Protein backbone atom coordinates (compact mmCIF):
# COMPACT_ATOMS: atom_id res chain seq x y z
CA UNK A 1 0.00 0.00 0.00
CA UNK A 2 0.94 3.65 -0.17
CA UNK A 3 2.64 5.72 2.48
CA UNK A 4 -0.60 6.45 4.34
CA UNK A 5 -2.15 3.79 6.65
CA UNK A 6 -5.44 2.21 5.60
CA UNK A 7 -7.11 3.35 8.82
CA UNK A 8 -6.66 6.89 7.51
CA UNK A 9 -8.57 6.01 4.36
CA UNK A 10 -11.33 4.41 6.44
CA UNK A 11 -11.62 7.56 8.54
CA UNK A 12 -11.66 9.85 5.50
CA UNK A 13 -14.27 7.65 3.80
CA UNK A 14 -16.56 7.71 6.82
CA UNK A 15 -16.11 11.44 7.24
CA UNK A 16 -16.87 12.05 3.56
CA UNK A 17 -20.03 9.94 3.69
CA UNK A 18 -21.15 11.54 6.97
CA UNK A 19 -21.33 14.98 5.34
CA UNK A 20 -25.01 15.52 4.42
CA UNK A 21 -25.61 14.94 0.73
CA UNK A 22 -27.95 13.07 -1.64
CA UNK A 23 -26.85 9.62 -0.37
CA UNK A 24 -27.51 10.64 3.22
CA UNK A 25 -30.90 12.14 2.40
CA UNK A 26 -32.00 8.95 0.64
CA UNK A 27 -30.73 6.78 3.51
CA UNK A 28 -32.85 8.77 5.96
CA UNK A 29 -35.82 8.66 3.60
CA UNK A 30 -35.54 4.91 3.04
CA UNK A 31 -35.15 4.31 6.76
CA UNK A 32 -38.30 6.30 7.50
CA UNK A 33 -40.36 4.63 4.75
CA UNK A 34 -39.18 1.02 4.85
CA UNK A 35 -37.26 0.56 8.09
CA UNK A 36 -33.53 0.05 8.58
CA UNK A 37 -33.42 -3.56 7.35
CA UNK A 38 -34.98 -2.79 3.99
CA UNK A 39 -33.10 0.50 3.63
CA UNK A 40 -30.06 -1.74 3.22
CA UNK A 41 -31.13 -2.27 -0.42
CA UNK A 42 -30.44 1.41 -1.05
CA UNK A 43 -27.06 1.14 0.63
CA UNK A 44 -26.20 -1.69 -1.75
CA UNK A 45 -26.79 0.74 -4.62
CA UNK A 46 -24.37 3.24 -3.07
CA UNK A 47 -21.72 0.55 -2.56
CA UNK A 48 -22.13 -0.58 -6.18
CA UNK A 49 -21.62 3.02 -7.29
CA UNK A 50 -18.41 3.28 -5.27
CA UNK A 51 -17.10 0.08 -6.84
CA UNK A 52 -17.77 1.48 -10.30
CA UNK A 53 -16.07 4.79 -9.51
CA UNK A 54 -13.05 3.13 -7.89
CA UNK A 55 -12.64 0.92 -10.97
CA UNK A 56 -12.76 4.03 -13.14
CA UNK A 57 -10.10 5.67 -10.97
CA UNK A 58 -7.91 2.59 -11.31
CA UNK A 59 -8.31 2.71 -15.09
CA UNK A 60 -7.65 6.45 -15.23
CA UNK A 61 -11.05 7.50 -16.60
CA UNK A 62 -12.19 9.40 -13.51
CA UNK A 63 -9.15 11.68 -13.57
CA UNK A 64 -9.82 12.54 -17.21
CA UNK A 65 -13.43 13.44 -16.42
CA UNK A 66 -12.52 15.59 -13.42
CA UNK A 67 -9.93 17.41 -15.53
CA UNK A 68 -12.64 18.34 -18.03
CA UNK A 69 -14.95 21.08 -16.76
CA UNK A 70 -17.44 20.29 -19.51
CA UNK A 71 -17.88 16.62 -18.56
CA UNK A 72 -17.88 17.37 -14.84
CA UNK A 73 -20.61 19.95 -15.40
CA UNK A 74 -22.51 17.34 -17.41
CA UNK A 75 -22.33 14.94 -14.47
CA UNK A 76 -23.63 17.69 -12.19
CA UNK A 77 -26.56 18.39 -14.50
CA UNK A 78 -27.49 14.72 -14.82
CA UNK A 79 -27.31 14.33 -11.06
CA UNK A 80 -29.35 17.49 -10.52
CA UNK A 81 -32.18 16.45 -12.82
CA UNK A 82 -32.27 12.97 -11.35
CA UNK A 83 -32.55 14.47 -7.86
CA UNK A 84 -35.42 16.64 -9.09
CA UNK A 85 -37.12 13.52 -10.47
CA UNK A 86 -36.81 11.75 -7.11
CA UNK A 87 -37.84 14.86 -5.15
CA UNK A 88 -41.04 15.23 -7.18
CA UNK A 89 -41.85 11.57 -6.53
CA UNK A 90 -41.23 11.98 -2.80
CA UNK A 91 -43.35 15.13 -2.60
CA UNK A 92 -46.19 13.47 -4.52
CA UNK A 93 -46.01 10.45 -2.22
CA UNK A 94 -46.21 12.75 0.81
CA UNK A 95 -49.76 13.70 -0.18
CA UNK A 96 -50.98 10.16 0.44
CA UNK A 97 -51.33 8.87 4.02
CA UNK A 98 -49.06 5.98 4.92
CA UNK A 99 -48.23 3.74 7.83
CA UNK A 100 -44.97 3.91 9.72
CA UNK A 101 -43.20 1.51 7.32
CA UNK A 102 -44.02 -0.03 3.96
CA UNK A 103 -43.81 -3.65 5.06
CA UNK A 104 -44.82 -4.90 1.62
CA UNK A 105 -41.48 -3.91 0.09
CA UNK A 106 -39.77 -7.32 0.54
CA UNK A 107 -42.59 -8.97 -1.42
CA UNK A 108 -42.14 -6.70 -4.42
CA UNK A 109 -39.06 -7.73 -6.37
CA UNK A 110 -39.39 -4.79 -8.73
CA UNK A 111 -39.52 -2.41 -5.76
CA UNK A 112 -36.27 -3.65 -4.24
CA UNK A 113 -34.55 -3.46 -7.62
CA UNK A 114 -35.92 0.06 -8.12
CA UNK A 115 -34.61 1.07 -4.70
CA UNK A 116 -31.13 -0.25 -5.49
CA UNK A 117 -31.14 1.42 -8.91
CA UNK A 118 -32.39 4.75 -7.53
CA UNK A 119 -29.65 4.96 -4.92
CA UNK A 120 -27.04 3.77 -7.42
CA UNK A 121 -28.01 6.50 -9.88
CA UNK A 122 -27.93 9.19 -7.19
CA UNK A 123 -24.52 8.05 -5.96
CA UNK A 124 -22.90 7.55 -9.36
CA UNK A 125 -24.03 10.99 -10.58
CA UNK A 126 -22.86 12.72 -7.41
CA UNK A 127 -20.01 15.06 -8.45
CA UNK A 128 -18.61 14.87 -4.93
CA UNK A 129 -17.77 11.21 -5.43
CA UNK A 130 -16.13 11.94 -8.79
CA UNK A 131 -13.92 14.51 -7.07
CA UNK A 132 -13.30 12.51 -3.89
CA UNK A 133 -11.96 9.22 -5.22
CA UNK A 134 -9.46 10.57 -7.80
CA UNK A 135 -8.11 12.99 -5.19
CA UNK A 136 -7.79 10.48 -2.34
CA UNK A 137 -7.11 7.01 -3.73
CA UNK A 138 -3.67 7.62 -5.38
CA UNK A 139 -2.19 8.53 -1.97
CA UNK A 140 -2.90 5.01 -0.74
CA UNK A 141 -1.49 3.18 -3.76
CA UNK A 142 2.03 1.80 -3.91
CA UNK A 143 3.05 1.41 -7.56
CA UNK A 144 5.63 -1.21 -6.54
CA UNK A 145 2.88 -3.60 -5.40
CA UNK A 146 -0.01 -5.21 -7.33
CA UNK A 147 -2.34 -2.33 -8.21
CA UNK A 148 -5.55 -4.33 -8.61
CA UNK A 149 -5.30 -5.91 -5.15
CA UNK A 150 -4.72 -2.52 -3.54
CA UNK A 151 -7.76 -1.00 -5.24
CA UNK A 152 -9.81 -4.03 -4.20
CA UNK A 153 -8.82 -3.52 -0.56
CA UNK A 154 -9.66 0.18 -0.74
CA UNK A 155 -13.03 -0.64 -2.34
CA UNK A 156 -13.87 -3.00 0.53
CA UNK A 157 -12.92 -0.36 3.09
CA UNK A 158 -15.03 2.26 1.29
CA UNK A 159 -17.98 -0.15 1.16
CA UNK A 160 -17.79 -0.89 4.88
CA UNK A 161 -17.48 2.81 5.68
CA UNK A 162 -20.50 3.65 3.50
CA UNK A 163 -22.73 1.00 5.03
CA UNK A 164 -21.69 1.91 8.58
CA UNK A 165 -22.51 5.60 8.16
CA UNK A 166 -25.64 5.14 6.07
CA UNK A 167 -26.96 2.59 8.57
CA UNK A 168 -26.79 5.28 11.25
CA UNK A 169 -28.70 7.72 9.07
CA UNK A 170 -31.28 5.08 8.16
CA UNK A 171 -31.76 4.40 11.86
CA UNK A 172 -32.27 8.12 12.39
CA UNK A 173 -34.93 8.10 9.70
CA UNK A 174 -36.72 5.11 11.23
CA UNK A 175 -36.70 6.76 14.65
CA UNK A 176 -38.16 9.91 13.14
CA UNK A 177 -40.91 7.83 11.53
CA UNK A 178 -41.65 6.24 14.91
CA UNK A 179 -42.07 9.68 16.48
CA UNK A 180 -44.15 11.00 13.59
CA UNK A 181 -46.23 7.94 12.75
CA UNK A 182 -49.53 8.26 10.92
CA UNK A 183 -50.59 11.49 9.20
CA UNK A 184 -47.60 13.41 10.59
CA UNK A 185 -45.23 11.13 8.63
CA UNK A 186 -45.99 13.14 5.49
CA UNK A 187 -43.87 15.96 6.88
CA UNK A 188 -40.81 13.70 6.79
CA UNK A 189 -41.31 13.10 3.07
CA UNK A 190 -41.91 16.78 2.43
CA UNK A 191 -38.76 17.76 4.28
CA UNK A 192 -36.67 15.23 2.34
CA UNK A 193 -38.25 16.25 -0.97
CA UNK A 194 -37.45 19.91 -0.34
CA UNK A 195 -33.90 18.98 0.70
CA UNK A 196 -33.38 17.06 -2.55
CA UNK A 197 -34.66 20.05 -4.52
CA UNK A 198 -32.18 22.25 -2.67
CA UNK A 199 -29.29 19.90 -3.44
CA UNK A 200 -30.29 19.76 -7.11
CA UNK A 201 -30.37 23.56 -7.24
CA UNK A 202 -26.82 23.70 -5.89
CA UNK A 203 -25.64 21.23 -8.56
CA UNK A 204 -27.31 23.23 -11.33
CA UNK A 205 -25.72 26.48 -10.12
CA UNK A 206 -22.32 24.75 -9.92
CA UNK A 207 -22.64 23.39 -13.43
CA UNK A 208 -23.51 26.88 -14.69
CA UNK A 209 -20.49 28.35 -12.90
CA UNK A 210 -22.47 30.41 -10.39
CA UNK A 211 -21.03 28.63 -7.34
Molecular structure report:
Helices cover 77% and strands 0% of the residues. It is built from nine helices and no strands. With 211 residues, the chain is an all-alpha fold. Residues 106-110 have low confidence and may be disordered. The chain is globular, with a radius of gyration of 18 Å. The chain has helices at residues 6-18, 22-34, 36-59, 61-67, 69-93, 109-124, 127-136, 147-179, 186-207. The longest helix is centred in the last third of the chain and has 33 residues, at 147-179. It has one domain. It is found in: Cell membrane. It holds the Pfam family LysE. It comes from Mesorhizobium helmanticense.
Q: How would you briefly describe this protein structure?
A:
The chain is an all-alpha fold and 211 residues long.
What is the CA-based Rg, rounded?
Answer: 18 Å
- Biggest sheet record: none
Helical fraction:
over 70%
Number of separate helices = 9
SSE order, as H and E?
A: HHHHHHHHH
Compute the number of structural domains.
Answer: 1
Distance between the termini: 36 Å
Shape: globular
| Portion in beta strands | under 5%
Low-pLDDT runs: 106-110
Average pLDDT metric: 80
Oligomer: single chain
The total of beta strands comes to: 0
Organism: Mesorhizobium helmanticense
Keywords: Cell membrane, Membrane, Transmembrane, Transmembrane helix
Protein name: Amino acid transporter
Membrane topology: Multi-pass membrane protein
Amino acid sequence: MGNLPLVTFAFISMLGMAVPGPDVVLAITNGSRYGVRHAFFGMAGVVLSDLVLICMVGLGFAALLVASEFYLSAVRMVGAFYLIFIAVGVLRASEAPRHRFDLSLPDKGHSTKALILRCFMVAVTNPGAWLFFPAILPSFIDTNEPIAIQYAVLAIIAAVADVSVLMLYATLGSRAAALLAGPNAMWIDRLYGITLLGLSSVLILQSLGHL
